[in-house]
Write a structure and sequence with these properties.
By secondary structure, the protein is an all-alpha fold. Helix content is 76%, strand content 0%.
Length: 395
């Protein structure tokens, strides 16, 4: 039994790796294949009448660790310099406005149909409005450098702003000026925590001589995130600040304090940490989507009661994205299609307390929106790639 589990586990991850390395050629995001593989495993076990344990309780844990590693991986890729200021502004405003606008539109629509309170409707709407960096970032391999950078900034900021917005709505029964003041205090607290943690972790990274040093650093990052989140602080800001700081350590050489860290030596350690983070993010991402696919139910995927809502939501996403890209003066193709929903949508959805759930926003709606938005991205990127190739041939 033990060896069977080990063989199965290793085989699944090796297949996931195969999906990952062939994605650039097939133009099919590995996420789609991982979901199908998980769903196929479920059907195979049902056919063979082989019962597996209930894995649903593991999904939130894997999703949380995956979110931390994916945002950390994305923040390490971001480079701070004057030439990026315009791109950062466009990414920030685009992510913020799309989340706020779409969540308001969906909240009013849910209220019209179900009649729940506006706050409850907003809580259920926000998870559907956030771009999944877990799906978007791996898709940039086939994009130009400028488009890829925009996707990294936008999807990472969408995750962070979406979680901040969700927590703000969830933790305030009534939205008043006091609520905004309290939220401002939380931002100040997490900024100080991030500064202290960044200095401490940078010191550890540069001073530890033991041959095991990167796993403890990653565990500390996850621990700080979990503790901050437990106290309802915007913990993803810490991940972003720490990743941006050590990912751009050369930029901080102008500050005397950072000279004490021996930045040249530290840069080598950061490169190793980055490699480990990328591999860890792949492992957790693969496990999450295989498990999520395994937990999918066929009747939820083909639920006719929610499919029209799912199509309408994806249509609204596309319309708002056209407006966003036009305002930002960014190319529609291929960026129009890179707005998938995924890990963060699931994580926030399952964190909604039962009392705040509304019947319309159920497993079927979440699953259908994720699948439709990911399929749209897949088809869009494939079509855009073919068009670019044909244009280059004509030239």
């Amino acid at each position: 039994m033990t060896y069977t589990i080990i063989i199965t586990f290793c085989s699944l991850l090796l297949v996931a790796y195969l999906f990952n390395i062939t994605a650039s050629k097939t133009k099919i995001p590995s996420v789609i294949l991982l979901l199908l593989m998980g769903w196929g495993i479920k059907k195979a076990t049902e056919f063979l009448k082989y019962e597996l344990p209930d894995f649903s309780s593991f999904l939130p844990v894997i999703a949380t660790v995956g979110l931390v590693l994916i945002v950390f991986e994305g923040s390490l890729e971001l480079k701070l310099n004057k030439s990026k200021i315009s791109l950062i502004k466009k990414s920030f405003l685009g992510a913020l406005l799309s989340i706020v606008t779409l969540s308001l539109m969906l909240s009013y629509a849910f209220q019209y149909v179900g009649g729940s309170s506006f706050k409850t409707n907003m809580l259920n709407a926000i998870p559907l409005c956030i771009i999944s960096s877990a799906i978007a970032i791996p898709s940039i391999r086939n994009l130009s450098k400028s488009d890829g950078e925009f996707v990294i900034y936008e999807s990472s900021l969408s995750d962070i702003l979406g979680v901040l917005f969700f927590n703000f709505i969830a933790l305030n029964q009534i939205i008043t000026l006091h609520s905004f003041g309290q939220f401002g205090i939380q931002l100040v607290i997490i900024a100080f925590v991030s500064l202290a943690a960044t200095i401490g972790l940078s010191l550890l990274l540069s001073k530890i001589d033991h041959h095991v040093k990167f796993i403890p650093i990653i565990l500390l990052i996850i621990l700080i995130y979990a503790v901050a989140n437990a106290y309802h602080l915007p913990a993803l800001l810490f991940i972003l600040i720490f990743g941006l700081t050590i990912g751009n350590i050369g930029w901080f050489k102008r500050f005397n304090w950072f000279l004490k860290l021996k930045t040249d030596v530290l840069q080598q350690e950061i490169n190793k940490l980055k490699e480990l983070t990328i591999e860890g993010a792949f492992l957790i991402r693969a496990l999450f989507f295989i498990l999520f696919g395994y937990l999918l139910k066929t009747e939820e995927i083909v639920n006719r009661d929610t499919i029209l809502w799912s199509l309408a939501i994806v249509f609204l996403v596309v319309v708002l994205r056209v407006l966003q890209l036009k305002i930002s003066r960014l190319p529609l193709k291929p960026l129009l299609f890179v707005a998938p929903r995924g890990l963060i949508t699931i994580l926030l959805f399952i964190s909604i307390v039962p009392a705040d759930n509304i019947p319309l926003v159920n497993n079927s709606l979440i699953i259908q929106v994720i699948i439709l938005s990911t399929l749209l991205m897949t088809i869009g990127l494939m079509v855009s790639s073919k068009k670019e190739k044909s244009d280059s041939i004509i030239e």
